[in-house]
Amino acid sequence: FPTKAVGVCGCCGALRPRYKRLVDNIFPEDPEDGLVKANMEKLTFYALSAPEKLDRIGAYLSERLSRDVARHRYGYVCIAMEALDQLLMACHCQSINLFVESFLTMVRKLLEADKPNLQILGTNSFVKFANIEEDTPSYHRSYDFFVSRFSEMCHSSYEDPDIRTKIRMAGIRGLQGVVRKTVNDELQANIWDPQHMDKIVPSLLFNLQQEEITERSPSPETEKEKESPIELTERCFRELLGRAAYGNIKNAVKPVLMHLDNHSLWEGKTFAVRCFKIIMYSIQSQHSHLVIQQLLGHLDANSKNSATVRAGIVEVISEAAVIEASGSIGPTVLEVFNTLLKQLRLSVDYELTGCYESCTSAGSKVIKVHEERQLQEAVIKTIGSFASTLPTYQRSEVMLFIMGKIPVPGMYPALGSANTGFEGSRMIQIMLLKSLLQVTAGFQTTNMLTALPSSFLDPLLSFTLMEDAEIRLLVLDILISLIDRHDNQLKVLTDISVLKLKMDKCSRQDNLFMKKHSQRLYRHVFLASKEENSSQGHFQSLYALLGLICVELANEEVVVDLIRLALALQDLALTEESLPVYNRCAIHALSAAYLNLISQLTTVPTFCQHVHEVIEARQKELPFLLPEDVFVETPKIPEKLEKVEGEVLFSQAKIAETLGGSGYNSERLATPYIPQLTGVSLFPVACDSDEDRLSKRKSIGDTISLQLEVESRLSPEKEQVRESLSDDVSLEEQERERRRQVVERFQTAPFEEIAAHCGARVSAHAKLIYIYVPPPSPSGSVGNGHGQSRSVPVYEMKFPDLCVY
């Protein structure tokens, strides 16, 4: 009987299981009629009523679909997938997992088919499934096949362009579905693993890239679609990045870097910048610095790659850093600048040596100088764009950081490599100063004393006395940028009488800043005017600097000192006959322009009248002593400057008299300005020459020789001190020869000999104490009945060298 019963069940449809009959009834005789909706409702009701049968329904549908695919009955295949989709949407019971396995098996079979329509059909079903939130967890489901297959579809090379686009879009939607289904499910395989990200991310980037490369005319069908492939790809990419947690950022960004490397996309810059803009705007803002860190590391890894590749990475960092700075700064501020400055140094080395590796090696690459120059400009631009987004306190730290990287003559050793030498150090100085200029652009602070400490200003000002004209001009521009807090530079350089500038009351912080640093500023302005290789730009920058000091930082005492400085510049142009004619005329013009500015700002009638009379006299007799004839592209100056005297000169006595009646310190105005190293200087003349030479040293040995020279001048007798401080021209050659010998000794002598020699020297401070401190009074001690005990004056105390400034 059992055998007979089985035969009867196989032959008679009425005896088949009910779920099979219900499944068979949803298929019409003609597949073009579509799914039988009434029977589909019965099947859905049955599945909801008997959820334990759901897995069997799925298995039977899968069996029918496999048979229909094999027989190329694609109409019934579509009907089966539609039925599966409706069952998935309706059923959320505990038995759904077994049904899902049957569903995924059918989707896998469709994706493996050769027909594009079947692949697209399977993808659409999978996307619908991905949007369903399951009530029960799954412990054994795997999506590895779908990641691989959808990624392959994203790279489809089907002959028909329309079908190829549809396949690629289906692949993108499939990857989007996989991400949605797995990214928040801890029980699923980690979609952020490199094995998955290395397939998903390049597939998306490939489609973004293809849309830029291939411009084909849109078909009527694609025009009706809601979004283009590029829009779909970008949306999917943004969704992927938006779901990335802190620990997944690296795995998501690394494939982007590798894709740009493998396809040489850094050189074009446009696509790389676009990719990272998408990344920076899509990820959570508190994770932005992780992307910057990866870019910096990638830049370091490509240090020996071509300049165009490095320039592309730098451009991307520039765009990404600005976006990151507007959100979460993170710990990467100094790291960004450190890496960029390192790339500047390497680029300078490459430019000077002509190769990336040792030029003696057989496989060394020859570089192109113009590409390295473009890279250097890109790095400097990036430094400026990133610094512009930083708050004031962080920008001050960056300025100090960059200043610490600049090789200062006589203070820090050269940064150039052994192959580049002095020229390498010079180029690094220029590049770093240009970077510093970018950082200071738009710098505004209410407290300049803390924003610009001595550790920053002292080395910066030392560059104003460098022999290199380009370096001096950069330093002047930096000082102008730091002092100009209200965008007054262009106003100062135009007609003051038209603009009617007014000096605001100087704040307490500004007063403290000028009290501490004003004499150094005046001194370096005065000494910078004496440089023979100064050009029109230098003198215009000096005028702008003095004008901004007057407008931004001036109080009554500062105005007096600035007038004295302007008159001292006039005397300098009269006495320094060794200077070129243009320089002397430019100094006269600088002094005239500046006194005219101060007279307009102080609004003292008698002072303004005197300045106006001198300017009118020069216009009639010596127009080449005014800015209009000097600060132009083709200056109108004589071949030789005759003796200048009379009404064309500003009178210090008249100025002191006119301003003294308005409350200014006439006694100080009548005192000629003498450059000083600090506010109070014992030997201003000697300090001028000594610091001038110290600022122009090119080696540590030269600096030591100058220190020895100063010490040798400070003998115990006052007469010898005064004699050593006088500028005796007859002894100049002997001093030069002695310095050369000292330098040679420090360069060639053994270390032990140098150490013994330096240890035996007596400090200059001790000698000055011996000379100028009066001996104890004859009465001896000052006591309260304690015999010989007495307090030691501060100037006699011995402090450690590190504590003495």
TrEMBL record:
GO cellular component terms attached to this protein's record: plasma membrane
Positions of region (Disordered): 717-736
Organism domain of life: Eukaryota
SUPFAM superfamilies listed in its UniProt record: ARM repeat (SSF48371)
Gene Ontology BP annotations: protein localization to plasma membrane
Family: Belongs to the EFR3 family.
Name of the protein described by the UniProt record: EFR3 homolog B
Species annotation: Pygocentrus nattereri (Red-bellied piranha)
Origin organism lineage: Eukaryota, Metazoa, Chordata, Craniata, Vertebrata
